[in-house]
Amino acid sequence: MLMRIEAWGREEREPVELPESVRAETWQTLTYLMIAGGIMLFTTFSASYLVRRQSADWAPARLPDLVWVNLAVVGAASVTMELARRGGASARRWLGSTIALGVLFVAGQAIAWRQLAAQGVFLTSSPHASFFYMLTAVHAAHVAAGLAVLLAALRRAGNGQLGLCAAWWHFVGAAWAWVVMLLTFF
Amino acid sequence: MRSQRGAVSAWLLSSLLILATILTVGAFFVLKWRPEVASEHGRGVDRMITYIIFAAGFIFVVGHLVLSTFLVKFGGKGTAAYKPMTHKTEMLFTIGPVVFMVAVSELGVLAIGGPVWNQVYTHKPDDLVVDITAKQYEWISRYPGKDGKFGRKRPDLFDDQENPLGLDRKDPDAKDDIVVRGAVYLPVGKGAWFNIQSWDVLHSFNVPVLRAKQDAVPGLTTHTRIVPTAVGRYEISCAEICGPGHYRMRGFVNVKSEADFAKWLKSQVGWFE
Amino acid sequence: MAIAQAVETGKAGHQAHGRDHGHPAGFIRKYIFSTDHKVIGVQYLLMAMLMSVVGLGLSLWFRVQLAWPGKAAMTPEQYVAIVTMHGTIMIFFVVSLALSSGLGNFSIPLQVGARDMAYPFLNMLSFWIIVPASAIMILSFFVEGGAAAGGWTAYPPLSALSGFGKVPRGSPGSGMGQTLWLLAMALFIVSFTMGGLNYVATILNLRARGMSLMRMPLTVWTYFVAALLGLLSFPALTAAAIMLLLDRHLGTSFFLPSGLVVSGQQAANVGGTPLLFQHLFWFLGHPEVYVLVLPAIGIAFDVIAAFSRRPPHGYKTSVWALLIIAFLGMIVWGHHMFTSGMNPFLGKYFSIATLLITAPFAVLGVNLLASLWRARIRFTTSMLFALGLISAVGTGGIGGLFLATATADLHFHDTYFVVGHFHLMIGVVTMTGTFAGIYYWFPKMFGRHMNETLGKLHFWGTFIGAFALFVIQHFQGFGGMTRRYFEYSADYVQPALALNPAVTWFAFLAVGAQIPFFFNFFWSMFKGKKAEANPWEATTLEWTTATPVPHGNWERLPVVSGKPYGYAEGANGDAHRMQNAEA
User: Do C492 and B156 count as a contact with CB atoms less than 8 A apart?
Assistant: First the structure.
């Protein structure tokens, strides 16, 4: 078998490089597919929420006011991301502020958890609380993925196309807005 | 050389497919392939199944005949020559199967299946109401007793030996409830409406001879309706995996004549009497 | 030691290229942690073969128990665990790996004219995530309580009653075994999702010049549709698995309802809904069937075209049928739940919607059959498997009519009819498609042919064994024989029960027929008849490059000039035209 496979790996050891334009297209496909998958994930959770809330034990807890501040932070991050995407001399600085706001958002979410826990509301206290903790955690994972990508973009001098980073970042922001609406009004 | 070997494969595969078709169709005549049926809607279920057997059988037989013919006709000898189909023929071969399949299958489910399905899920006012509770690995049935009311089931009062339904001694409705372990009793020819519940995991109240199957879901009451048409003793076999003892989760539905059923009911004493 | 020896062999065989690269580091980079899609494809195939030994071995073990109760040295606890693991391993670690991941990886870049996958490193990662996933799945047999035993569907409450913390224990297999099962499945989902991303990006963006969407081979189309379906439906299972894990370990009540009493112990849970899990599971589970079945059909189209020397009938209608199947496949999951306690009205909807799928499937079936019309069939092993697939699609497909009709499903749900039906579809259809693909592409993979005599032996054994085995199971289902039973005692089931030994004998035949295949596969790698670049005179792009395929697939990328199936060309209709032939 090794004799057979031998020839495949011959000569070039480096992965085959794609032309820049094609690479840009594959990143686009990848990003939009991941956003589609993410939308399906949050849709599934939302559907589960709407089903679960019909049970007799449903009792929505008041979320800490901090979640609204965090929503504002994530909204501001979307604005700075948009400014960074527009390019220009200050793009790098805007990207930096986006990352800072992103970190601030995650920290804010952690504080919201602690506030809620201080009130004696834990993961198992009520189904509403279960959803709050679970959805914030799942969402934070998406934010973390976004932050990792933004950091990579920042290292690459930030002059490249930030369109796809922005698309993911807006998706993450919109997802949080949706989660807060769901947990507050439904 | 190649063509000859090809011809062998062609004949071999095509006769095998014909043989498989004959054996499959023949099995319906040779085997006792379905249990007898002893319920009103069960006859409807069987009617539905028979309809599909003919529809599906037609596709099965024709499909395999065509495949076998093509194999022999176009296999091995290499004489046939492909010509593209006209657009019109091609459309015919697309629209034809689509219309056929949709018509045959939807007609069956709407005309034959639908009414039977409704029958199974419609509670009639003078139905005998039976309460079924499942637990690992047992079926427990309950009748409301003289007052016609079921007592509440309380998880905290559950006791496997003394009180498998968790009935409350102080609940007046529960006092005369009749509890039967491992069996259900039904009068023949009368509708029975089942409330099905489970204590622990999913089970399925499955009585093949009555063509009845309904999952028992914890936290939910599911329903099914049966009108038995023949006196007899029919086995309940759990049909949703519920643990290692799944296979021994049995029970019996005893269908009695109306007089015998009344006599049986009279002989029963309430759980707390 | 074995590796060192292998390196030596590789070196000797490679002298012709005049390069010395038998260095271990190079070896590891090339054959173990390779980013080449062809190597990864073969790695997936080998992994699937390894796991199939486990999965098929388990099935024979419980088939013995079923045919001759008590002769298999097995307890009821082991039985449910073995049935669960057989299902999980075969679906996710054999069929998915061999067909979706293995052949998909090998064929997609070659058929669309790309140098590799869009993300080769991600591709390698996908494969290497499968290795711990498989290991965890198998190791779960050896933890306290044994492997997961709630069926491959892992319905709560049984799968949620873990015995951890305040949660009562539902069954022995609901403990650590179920947790490891979920962990292995999580890794599988990650790998499969990354693979799907790669497939779609490759197919959309890396096609060779001139390869418009409607010039793609049907194999590529089916992989494309399957990847999209997978990407949109797997998140539902991900969400369900997260909630199930929280219920199991942290005491939440997503799926665990109020008032649970498990073996006398009262649970503290309140208000969960077990049915929710079933909805989420089948929202993935049903599309997953098409994720597996469609590529097998796609491969069959390619193979049949090559060996019947004419283009497949109705390329365009097949593509449309695929897209319609994908769409309908996402909105019919409830037909797995007719007796689950779901609203009966919903049951009717799901029944009517599901039966609509028969229409596009009939189009695919007719197109497959019509592709043989006025053909010049060459009966290679690959072609035999593709022909077997036509029969299996028909036979398995009509079984779907019974199960999709809610009223009939009252009798068939959770009987051997279901078992026979889904084995025909995601067992026989998928594997005949996979084998057709393996025999077809083997010369391209290894530069050698597989032995045809052993191949025929493999085909006849597999086809006769599997067809008989699963058709008989349909009849057992007619007889009302319930599935996942360790033993049977009911009166009504006796006629069906009498068929059990026959089923087991045919299972031995079908599994035994894989022995010549395994032997053939490894023997032919070294000793098989040498193959030219295009031994089948097929016209799609993978046959335009040298064999063995060089790294990067082509010296110069092909430029596509026409349809994928340039058969029956020329004045006599016996010529063929490669897809990159100059106009």
Answer: no
